[in-house]
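User: Can you recover a sequence for this backbone? Please restate the input before giving your answer.

Assistant: Of course. Working from this structure:
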């Protein structure tokens, strides 16, 4: 259950004010097809989370316990540092000849590769030995961060103190990652 909750909260936090939300806003505004956009979000988030969780399950047996903890610490630090950068507006994919669903699914799937939440799911799956729960939690966290943008559009981003959330969240993740790294290195 720890894997589910950690992945859910970490991925939710990692997506607040991030380029994925900005892309979803651009696509929702352009297409105006909320159902297709939401379906694309679910497909992309599930696919990215499944790939990360499967990779974590594959890597975990190759690493000792301390190495798995250090891997999770690095993923947490990576996500924490990423929260301090302002998200740039991504390409709105206006040249793509596909519809709302496919553009959303493929755009978010590609945008999610190597992103902090995907790396966090990988780290949690590696450390906890619960890749299915890590994948489910991560997918739910990403979906929970993106679907409200489709439904509320600019109103959500105007009301949400995204910068403050990212700064506080980044600080908490850096502290947690540092503590895990020190523990993995037997310095604490």
């Amino acid at each position: 259950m720890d894997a589910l909750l950690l992945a859910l909260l970490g991925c939710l936090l990692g997506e607040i004010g991030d380029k994925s939300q900005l892309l979803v806003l651009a696509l929702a505004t352009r297409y105006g097809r909320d159902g297709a956009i939401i379906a694309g979000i679910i497909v992309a988030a599930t696919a990215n989370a499944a790939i990360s969780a499967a990779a974590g399950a594959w890597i975990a047996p190759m690493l000792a316990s301390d190495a798995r903890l250090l891997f999770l610490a690095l993923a947490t630090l990576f996500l924490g540092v990423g929260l301090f950068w302002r998200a740039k507006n991504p390409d709105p994919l206006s040249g793509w000849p596909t519809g709302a669903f496919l553009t959303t699914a493929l755009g978010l799937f590609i945008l999610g590769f190597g992103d902090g939440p995907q790396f966090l799911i990988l780290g949690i799956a590696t450390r906890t030995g619960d890749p299915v729960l890590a994948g489910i939690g991560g997918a739910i966290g990403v979906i929970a961060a993106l679907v409200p943008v489709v439904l509320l559009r600019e109103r959500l981003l105007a009301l949400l103190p995204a910068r403050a959330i990212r700064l506080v969240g980044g600080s908490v993740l850096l502290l947690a990652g540092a503590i895990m790294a020190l523990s993995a290195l037997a310095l604490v």
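That completes the design. The chain is about 80% helix and 0% strand.
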